[in-house]
Amino acid sequence: MSKEFGIADDICTRMRDWRHDIHANPETAFEEHRTAQLVADALMEMQIPVHRGLGGTGVVGTLKNGEGPTIALRADMDALDLQELGDRAHKSTRAGKMHGCGHDGHTTMLLGAAVHLARHRPFRGTVHFVFQPAEENEGGGRKMVEEGLFKLFPADAVYGMHNIPNISRGKFAIRTGIATAFLDTFEIVVTGSGCHAATPEKGIDSILVSADLVSALQGIVSRRIGAMDAAVVSVTQIHGGDTWNVVPEAVTLRGTVRTLDAEVQDQVEAAMKQVCAGVAQTHGAKIDLSYMRGYPGVINTPAETDAAAAAAASLVGAEQVQTDIKPAMGSEDFAFMLQERPGAYICIGAGETANDPPLHNPYYDFNDAILPLGAAYWVELVKQQLPAA
């Protein structure tokens, strides 16, 4: 039987079938019941013991082959609240939901690796296959950790992987240290005094206050944060008013903050509080800021980063593994697992052309051509990190 990157053809075929099935039936945060069942069934078919229910819909399969070290490999299962616009045979069958980030492929690559490892058992030790719910915004990784992931399934290290369309297929990328941004969100309620739009002088215009506040918030990064530090403050929602001729009593603003350093994160939050207080005083309005700390940054530990890069290089050559990429301002709740165990998060290239749709785009689709390479990466990592059988 021919093989691609050491993964047998029958496994490659199953991976494509699984991936298309999951893609056609997307499930969002904590609703991944069908996907979790597919994963559990596939693992049990391989006679890999399965644990269900961590994080609500999480699945953990454990493959033990004698005594030795233990590692955990993690994939995310959830889809996005996004209407798919691409035209393909495995297009989403669920309105307003799609796999726009490739978690269908991530799940499938880890399943493919599990099949190969269960079939050949080229190691001594234990591998935990962690299939996580709710990576998109809802912190399924945090919930699995809080519910005892590493108490129930101790691991010496934990590893994650994500496809990246703007990195060419056949390449990998990783960095030691901070790899993705700290993710915070905020909600600001601006309360003025409602009045007729024809006589705004009789009220306090919450729309005008909000406009000034949005402009002032943009000054935080450009004038409060050092030029060598990274931060983003984005207002992404503005809600207020119900008709054409009434100045509304209140306006609600929502948005996100991204930083690459905990000290800068503190600086941005403090500056936002100060700006809100100043704009409120200027206009005689009331401004209430709710600042919510979300995902921490993904911080790759040195030894595990080297291990991940070496596993990738064994498949594609060291020249195809970039180890000095810039941190991404996107965020990942794999960070919660890295707070508990050393580990590393690697990017696998999925791009074919410069015009490939990016992640979180309604025309995006995971590139099936990288399924064998992704599965082989997991296999090589296990073979490298655990003693040979």
TrEMBL record:
Pfam families: M20_dimer (PF07687), Peptidase_M20 (PF01546). Keywords: Hydrolase, Manganese, Metal-binding. SUPFAM superfamilies: Bacterial exopeptidase dimerisation domain, Zn-dependent exopeptidases. Gene3D superfamilies: 3.30.70.360, Zn peptidases. Residues 185-277 form the Peptidase M20 dimerisation domain. The keyword Hydrolase applies. One of its GO terms (molecular function) is metal ion binding. The Mn(2+) ion enhances activity. Its cofactor is Mn(2+). It comes from the Bacteria. InterPro entries: Amidohydrolase, Bact_exopeptidase_dim_dom, Peptidase_M20, Peptidase_M20_dimer. Mn(2+) binds at C101, H103, E136, H162, H360. Belongs to the peptidase M20 family. PANTHER family: METALLOPEPTIDASE, PUTATIVE (AFU_ORTHOLOGUE AFUA_6G09600)-RELATED, PEPTIDASE M20 FAMILY MEMBER. This is Amidohydrolase/hippurate hydrolase. It comes from Bradyrhizobium macuxiense. The lineage of its organism: Bacteria, Pseudomonadati, Pseudomonadota, Alphaproteobacteria, Hyphomicrobiales.
